[in-house]
């Protein structure tokens, strides 16, 4: 199906990495970044959990898109991105900013209240001007109602570390990393089934009592480099997919 590199964990929003920042050959390769833009209109911001879930599905949608594989128009950029440290940056837009972002090549994914546009990877220092001027900060979001309990037996769940405080933008990138690690770990048949179903998933904060079990379960774990917000080596997300248990 897609190009699947050796499972090295991705790097987080605003140039974080979910692996500890030891040097490896990937550091010597040209560095690329996967841009994500969340729409946050002044009077109608999305719910936080919906934004996290929509960002994760946006990453998966790009990874599963035929343009990202083989001879597709985005395939070379995706391969270059996967061959280096995997970086994701989440920025926000509204009004005319959002309309300009939507005019660039990419995919917009819709949630119940959230809209997230994902773009093919770009060089770390090669941002299009309409994305470069968007703000990284200001992605503080809330849930108007507590999210319903997750059903890990029925659909994938990206479990957030209950001991960490993360901005919505940071958490969106971390959820995207968890989804990507699950995608890499799945066999082809499970990937196809997940894609054909529209990448259903839940993002929830784990119960403190469950977190040690989750991080030692053999499921994909995102570890942060600690460049922003949290300490180096922190486990941020565990990706639980029914096909990985």
From TrEMBL:
Family annotation (SUPFAM superfamilies): Peptidyl-tRNA hydrolase II
EC number(s) given by UniProt: 3.1.1.29
Region (Disordered): 1-28
GO molecular function: peptidyl-tRNA hydrolase activity
Key word Hydrolase present: yes
Cross-referenced Pfam families: PTH2
Composition-biased stretches (Low complexity): 1-15
UniProt keyword terms in alphabetical order: Hydrolase
Catalysed transformations (reactions): an N-acyl-L-alpha-aminoacyl-tRNA + H2O = an N-acyl-L-amino acid + a tRNA + H(+)
Protein origin, superkingdom: Bacteria
Protein name: peptidyl-tRNA hydrolase
Lineage, opening ranks: Bacteria, Bacillati, Actinomycetota, Actinomycetes, Kitasatosporales
């Amino acid at each position: 199906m897609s190009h699947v590199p050796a499972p090295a964990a991705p790097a987080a929003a605003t140039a974080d990495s979910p692996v500890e920042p030891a040097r490896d050959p990937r550091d010597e390769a040209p560095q690329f970044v996967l841009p994500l833009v969340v729409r946050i209109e002044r009077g109608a911001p999305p719910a936080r959990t919906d934004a996290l879930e929509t960002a994760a599905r946006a990453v998966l949608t790009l990874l599963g898109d035929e343009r990202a594989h083989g001879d597709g128009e985005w395939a070379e950029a995706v391969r270059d991105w996967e061959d280096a440290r995997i970086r994701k940056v989440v920025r926000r837009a509204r009004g005319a900013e959002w309309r300009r972002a939507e005019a660039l090549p990419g995919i917009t994914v819709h949630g119940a209240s959230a809209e997230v546009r994902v773009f093919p990877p770009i060089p770390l220092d090669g941002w299009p001007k309409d994305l470069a001027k968007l703000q990284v900060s200001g992605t503080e979001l809330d849930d108007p109602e507590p999210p319903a309990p997750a059903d890990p037996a029925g659909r994938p769940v990206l479990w957030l570390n209950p001991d960490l405080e993360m901005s919505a933008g940071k958490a969106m990138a971390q959820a995207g990393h968890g989804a990507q690690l699950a995608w890499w770990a799945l066999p082809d048949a499970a990937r196809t089934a997940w894609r054909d179903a529209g990448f259903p998933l839940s993002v929830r904060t784990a119960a403190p009592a469950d977190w040690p079990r989750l991080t030692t379960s053999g499921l994909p774990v995102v570890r942060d480099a600690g460049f922003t917000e949290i300490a180096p080596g922190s486990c941020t997300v565990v990706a639980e997919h029914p096909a990985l248990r």
